[in-house]
Structures are given as C-alpha cells and as structure tokens.
Amino acid sequence: MSRPFSPLTSQLVGGTLIAVLLLSLGYAWHVRSSLRGTADGSARILKLGHGLPTDHPVHMAMSRMAERVHELSGGKLEIQIYPSGMIGSEAECLKQVQNNQIDLSKTSTAVLESSVPEIVAFSVPYLFRDGEHFWKVMNGPIGRKVGDMLPGMRGLAYYDAGLRSFYTTRKPIRKADDVKGLKIRTQQSRCAMDMVSSFGGAPTPIPWGELYTALSQGTVDGAENNLPSFDTGRHMEVCRYFTFSEHSRVPDMLVISRATWESLTPQQQEWIEKAAAESSLYQRELWIESEKQARRKAEELGVEFIDVDRKEFAEKMKPLYDGLPPETAALVREIEEVK
Description:
The chain is α/β, with parallel strands linked by helices. The protein has helices at residues 7-36, 57-73, 90-98, 131-138, 141-147, 190-198, 211-217, 227-232, 258-263, 266-300, 310-315, 318-322, 326-337, and strands at residues 44-49, 77-82, 104-108, 153-159, 164-168, 183-186, 202-205, 222-225, 241-248, 252-257, 304-307. The strands form two sheets. It has a six-stranded mixed β-sheet. It has a five-stranded mixed β-sheet with strand order 2-1-3-10-4, sandwiched between helices. α2 links the parallel β1 (44-49) and β2. Keywords: Signal.
C-alpha cells in the first residue's frame, strides 16, 4: 500500500514544479524576444559565438560587421559577439546555430564536409588557380549555391583562411617525396587525410588545442596550415621548417541560423548581407598583414622557409581527384570552368 506524501514533501515537490514552470516561461520569453524583438520597439539582438581569439582577423572582421549592422539599422538591430569559446568550441557553436540556440557563427568549410558532400570541393588540393580565381568562385553563383546547402543554416560570407602548407619539426620537405613516412596532423577532413596519404604520409587528425604538445613530443612530425595559424598556435617555436606547398585554400564561412534568417524582415536581411560583404573585404586586408607579421616572427626564431615546385606536388593528387564522390567531382568541374 503506497504511503501519502508528507506535508514537507508535498511543499518541496510543489515548489520544484513552480520553479520549473517559471524557468520555462522565462526561457520562452527570451527566445521570443530574441527572434521577434520586443513590442516596445527596442533593438533586436542576435548572438554570434565562435572559438577564435579577439586578435584574430576573422574576429576583427565580425566585430566590424556588428558595428556596420548597428550603423545601417540605426541601432534597431544589434549583434552581440561571444569570442574565444565563451559559449562553446567551433563545432559546438555550429551545432547551436543549426539548432537555433544562437544566431550566427563562423566555421571552416572543411568542418561541413560530412553533411554537405559538395563542399568537399573547396578542400581539393590545387583546384584554385590563384587568389582571383578563388574569390570569383566564393563571391559568385557557386559560393552562393553552396551557402544555401547547409543544414539548418545559411551562408552569409566567406573569409580568407589563407593557403595551407606543410611545416615540420625535424625533416624538411623540399620535394613531394619528402612527405613519405611522415606523420602529418590534419583536420577532421576526409579530403585533407586523403591528400596526405596521396603523398605517402600518415594523416593524423588531432584537435587543434593538442597540436602544440603533439609536435613538441614527436607524436606527429608536422602539420599543414596557414602562416597566421603557424604563429597563433605557437607552432613556430617547435617547427624548424615551413614548406610553401600551398596545396589548398579552404575558406571560412560566416553562417546564420536558417530560422533566424527567415524571421528577419527583408530590410534586416539587407543590412546583414551588406555588413557581412563589407566585413569579408576588410578581413582580406587584415589577413595579408597577419601573414607578413607571422613570417617576420618565424624568421626571427630561425624557421627556414622553403619554396618548392608546386606542379610536382600537384601531380601526386591524380588518385585523389579520381576518387572524388560524384557530387564533389561535379562541383570541381564547375569551379575549374570559372574564368
């Protein structure tokens, strides 16, 4: 036979239910306010979270975007930025945008490869002929089409993440065959791993935050990334060689929750698109300066910079091109046709 609740237990249960109800109502009010603004005409606030430090060119560009949105809207629309992983890592922020928990974030397109097969094309080695070709693709019909393919999100603008090259701790890479047998850290990108394998190396996916230790302890022999990351990751402290293989140019993308985007008025959408496009141009200027600064710092530390015959490196990529999925191969052909 069940026993009735004591008066004290009944009070505790009742209090807990009331607290849960109040929290639920408060959360619902917060979501409604952030999506639709308040009835008294106060500013609508959008939240942008990312994992980059505040001195990174992409963060600085997004800060400029927030300023421009404020100016264009006359303060009716605001973007609050939460940098440096304050509300989650890059992957966590991306998931929050997809789930409409925050409004905007930044991601490397390589992170999206598993959910958008076409976007693998942006990681294919030696696909872009030069910077002009790259930006014609990103800012043209192909870039817009890919930006509309994202699950639960919409691409707003692309940011420059530079040319990715190899850097190593002990053995210099002076020709393509020098990669053979080396353990090279890559992103969690099938295309990046296949690229290293095509050179005869051993691709080793390691989280970015653990890479400095992996390089210094010899867990990996090297990595592949851009010059500013070589600097901000302090990898130049443990790597003696930087080889300008310049094998890929994987962009960053500014994304917005699709639910947030569809809740905006046409005027608000116009403000955000204009500010995002301007921030992309501004970031490209910052990126060029950050590359120069990173090289100066590395040279002061004694890093040897090595120029190579990139055609020789590109020739090793034929098996990778032959094995591309149909959706990726189709987009690669489209990109190659852009003049």
